[in-house]
Design goal:
Layout: H1 2-29, E1 40-42, E2 45-47, E3 52-55, H2 59-68, E4 72-86, E5 92-99, H3 101-107, E6 113-114, E7 129-132, H4 134-141, E8 151-154, E9 157-164, E10 179-182, E11 198-203, H5 209-226, H6 235-240, E12 244-245, E13 248-249, H7 250-255, H8 259-289, H9 292-300, H10 305-341, H11 356-381, H12 386-392, H13 401-436, E14 448-454, H14 466-478, E15 485-489, E16 500-502, E17 504-505, E18 518-524, H15 528-532, E19 536-539, H16 544-548, E20 553-557, H17 558-565, H18 568-571, E21 575-577, E22 585-591, E23 606-610, E24 612-616, E25 619-623, E26 626-632, H19 639-650, E27 659-663, H20 664-671, H21 673-707, H22 709-717, H23 722-755, H24 767-793, H25 797-803
Parallel strand pairs: 5-10, 7-9, 18-23, 20-22
Antiparallel strand pairs: 1-11, 1-13, 2-3, 2-12, 4-5, 4-8, 4-11, 6-9, 7-10, 8-9, 14-26, 14-27, 15-26, 16-18, 17-21, 19-22, 20-23, 21-22, 24-25
Length: about 800
């Protein structure tokens, strides 16, 4: 039973640590799967003049950086895309990536078939081409090698397939890219601005990050001198933005901001292992105490302290190694659960697994744990004198307090570590509760079905006719049984589609060098607000008359209205625009704030425009072709309902595939997925810690009762009451718990600064959480102490003294 309990605790503690370390190693520690990944950089900019600490690249920057840099071997732009594949059965919407020729070259990828993009493919006059991912090649073309040279119809344009990427290639953290398309910029038509492209660069050998940043800083003034500002914008505006370099290792962007989360989880699971080691050490102490006479006889026969210590440590090492092997099996199963529970935004999830570094970590942790729990009995008993061991091993003496001191220290350690983990779990519970109480700005997201479509020029050439086709689809959807309202827009809240730009107000004077803050822009149809459940606070909604007659109107969010004009009512009738040659547009309505970047981020200031605009952003006419529909119905989310929606869309245009099919609740839950994942993982760690700590406390009290049977018999013979004996042991358990809680408080205050970035709406020193955890831990300790203490009151003093 001793061996079974020991191995079980070690398997759970080591297995949990190996599982989490596998995630940490796969996401944070493993190099990116490209040649010389240390030379790969994210090439981005900053624009502190407009409040942008991190800005993307513009084509004008790309041209100058490509031609005049002194530090890059390759540099390329890329942009997420989604294309409609038609002409081969049912239309299909697939994830795509628009890239320049230097992008794949910078990553060092070699084609599995055909060739990759060359600089000539970047030219606007070059034939349209496409490169397929390996998985899409297998799925769409059954792995046929004759695919090179065939035609692929993407968004109504025929593209020649020129290459296939290798099986194991993944583009950064994008897992499902099917098609790569060339970005083709016309240098003669390129203006400053349009900072909407990501960039990756590969440094020349021996070049440092600081040198690359200096090189970009040198080239930025050349960009301003080489390209004109777009119509309606002045060169002075770009100078005031104070554009500067912001280069960083590519790994930093691929991994994102999950490092704090993963290290917190690693530390929490490490605490569980320490608690398990403390429990095993207590078991070994009890077992070694029972062997004192044996150890004393060995010493009397000439065994040295080193010989006895070596034998005890060898037993611990065997237990540690077997426990690690069992823990490795447990980790394999736990990893599958971890990957299932992991938020979809967790990067490099395909790199997580049991590999050589993980096996090395398992061996290291086996040796470390063996020493941790094995040294406790070694230090206490390996050097005991033979006379002392023989005397204390006799049955005529009661157990001394010194005999229990080591076990008490270990239990105190368990309680303090469990307290820290329970505090972390409690704060995450409070964080999750705070997030669920934030008003997202829309209503009943589970009843809103969303999907995206793109109307290519091959289907509708005239921009003015695009919204009429979109309205036809909207009317067909509205006629579907069970649908209460329908609308569409350029972006659904929290779906990751963001467009931010400056907005000037007609009644505000701007000082020399001052620029207005960036606002989030959304194109919407009439009925969109109703379908989303976004309240209209003041004024009216956009109408179809506004849209088709191109009346210059706009809606803004409540926080925008209050920032500029004090109240929603005061904002009505005011005028705003983006470019100096645009028409001023009258604010006709103010809507509720919508949390677009997640529930833990402040709602952005939004501007809503009609889906058809004249004289907007220096363009004579702009139609929104890439749109997301919102269909409100209690049937949202069901397959049968989606079949009806597809039928309605294809009754208008059979070439329009539906993409990003999700309910609005999917995006809402996705925004809290990382918090929920952290809550679950810390909750599991806290529950394991509480269980192991309770078992440790129970074991100490139970063993104390069993070892003090003679003392209890004497006390009862002298008149001690059962209640007093029970209280004596309960008091011992509560005293250990109190000391553990005090130590845990000090430790919690020290580690909470690492947790603060994961919290929302709650302080890292939240008194409610600390009080609740303390009360819960004390109550658990009371129960764990009371149950074995009851045995003390059932001791028969006559039998106890006779047994001695």
């Amino acid at each position: 039973m001793f061996t079974v309990l020991t191995l079980l605790m070690l398997a759970v503690g080591i297995g949990a640590n190996v599982a989490v370390f596998s995630v940490v190693e796969g996401v944070l520690l493993k190099p990116l799967p490209y040649p010389h990944p240390e030379r790969l950089l994210t090439v981005s900019l900053s624009a502190p003049g407009v409040g942008l600490p991190d800005a993307q690249m513009a084509p004008s920057d790309y041209f100058i950086f490509q031609e005049q840099n002194r530090t890059f071997q390759n540099i390329g732009l890329y942009q997420d895309d989604s294309v409609s594949i038609t002409g081969a059965g049912q239309p299909d919407q697939v994830p795509a990536m628009d890239v320049t020729s230097g992008t794949l070259a910078a990553l060092g990828v070699q084609p599995a078939l055909g060739r990759l993009f060359s600089p000539s493919d970047d030219s606007p006059s070059a034939p349209l081409a496409a490169v397929l991912s390996y998985s899409y090649w297998q799925r769409k073309f059954a792995g046929s090698r004759s695919v090179i040279g065939r035609t692929l119809d993407a968004d109504g344009k025929a593209r020649q397939i020129i290459g296939v990427l290798p099986r194991d290639f993944q583009f950064l953290d994008r897992q499902n890219v099917a098609v790569f398309l060339p970005l083709q910029f016309d240098r003669n038509k390129t203006f400053l601005g349009n900072f909407s492209y990501n960039a990756v660069g590969r440094l020349n050998s021996g070049v440092t990050l600081a040198q690359a940043n200096a090189d970009v800083a040198r080239m930025l003034p050349i960009v301003l001198r080489s390209f004109a500002p777009p119509p309606g914008f002045s060169l002075d505006l770009f100078k005031k933005a104070q554009i500067g370099p912001n280069l960083r290792p590519l790994r930093q962007d691929v991994v994102g901001n999950v490092s704090t989360l993963l290290w917190v989880l690693m530390a929490s699971i490490g605490m569980v292992l320490l608690i398990a080691c403390a429990n095993v050490a207590n078991l070994l102490l009890v077992r070694t105490e029972g062997r004192q006479q044996e150890l004393a006889i060995r010493t009397a026969l000439g065994a040295t302290r080193g010989r006895i210590a070596g034998e005890l440590l060898f037993e611990s090492l065997v237990l540690g190694l077997i426990g690690s092997i069992l823990g490795l099996g447990f980790a394999y199963a736990a990893l599958r659960l971890l990957v299932t529970l992991a938020p979809s935004g967790l990067p490099r999830i395909t790199d997580i697994g049991i590999n050589f570094p993980v096996l090395l970590f398992t061996l290291a942790i086996a040796l470390l744990t063996s020493v941790l729990f094995g040294l406790v009995p070694v230090l206490k008993y390996a050097g005991a004198r033979a006379s002392t061991g023989l005397r204390e091993g006799g049955r005529t003496l009661s157990q001394s307090r010194q005999r229990h001191r080591a076990r008490n220290v270990l239990v105190t350690l368990q309680v303090s570590l469990a307290f820290v983990l329970l505090i972390c779990s409690g704060l995450m519970i409070r964080t999750f509760r705070a997030l669920t109480h934030v008003n997202p700005g829309f209503a009943n997201p589970a009843d809103v079905q969303t999907f995206r479509i793109f109307i290519p020029g091959s289907d509708v050439a005239d921009d003015a006719q695009v919204p009429r086709v979109e309205q036809q689809i909207r009317d067909k959807l509205a006629a579907t049984p069970g649908v209460s309202s329908v609308g569409f827009s350029s972006a659904i809240p929290m779906d990751g589609n963001n467009w931010n730009d400056l907005v000037f107000a007609a009644d505000r004077a701007y000082a020399q060098g001052q620029l207005p803050p960036l606002r989030r822009h959304v194109m919407i149809s009439p009925g969109y607000l109703q379908a989303m459940g976004i309240p209209l606070i003041a004024g009216r909604d956009i109408t179809w008359t506004d849209t088709y007659d191109k009346i210059p109107v706009a809606l803004i969010s409540e926080n925008f209205a209050r920032e500029y004009w004090g109240s929603p009512a005061n904002a009505l009738g005011k005028r705003i625009r983006i470019s100096s040659i645009d028409d001023w547009r009258q604010i006709i309505g103010v809507v509720a704030n919508v949390h677009d970047h997640g529930m833990n981020k402040a709602a952005p200031a939004d501007v809503y425009w009609p889906v058809l605009l004249a004289k907007f952003e220096s363009e004579p006419l702009r139609a929104t072709r890439d749109i997301a529909f919102a269909v409100r119905s209690p049937l949202a989310g069901s397959q049968a309902f989606m079949n009806q929606i597809r039928h309605a869309v294809w009754s208008v245009d059979a070439n329009l595939p539906l993409a990003s099919v999700h309910t609005l609740d999917y995006f809402y839950q996705h925004s809290m997925a990382r918090t929920a994942f952290t809550l679950v993982m810390l909750g599991i760690a806290g529950a394991m810690a509480l269980l192991l700590g309770t078992v440790g406390l129970y074991g100490v009290i139970a063993y104390s009762v069993s070892q003090r049977t003679r003392e209890i018999g004497i006390r009862m013979a002298l008149g001690a009451q059962q209640k007093e004996l029970t209280l004596m042991f309960v008091r011992q358990g509560l005293m250990l718990t109190a000391i553990g809680v005090v130590c845990g408080l000090a430790a919690a205050f020290a580690v909470m600064r690492f947790m603060s970035s994961l919290l929302f709406g709650v302080s890292a020193l939240d008194p409610v959480t600390y009080a609740a955890v303390t009360a819960g831990l004390v109550a658990t300790a009371l129960l764990a102490s009371y149950l074995p203490s009851r045995r003390a009151s059932s001791v028969n003093p006559v039998e106890a003294l006779r047994a001695e």
